[in-house]
Amino acid sequence: MFRLKLSNHFIICGAGRVGSKVAEELKERNIPFIIIEKNPKVVKKLKSEGYKVIEGDCLDEDVLRSANIEKCKGVIACMGEDEDNLFVVLTAEQVNRKIITISRANDESAIEKLKSVNVDYIVMPELMGAKEIANIVLKEMVESELKE
Question: pTM to 2 decimals?
Answer without folding.
Answer: 0.86
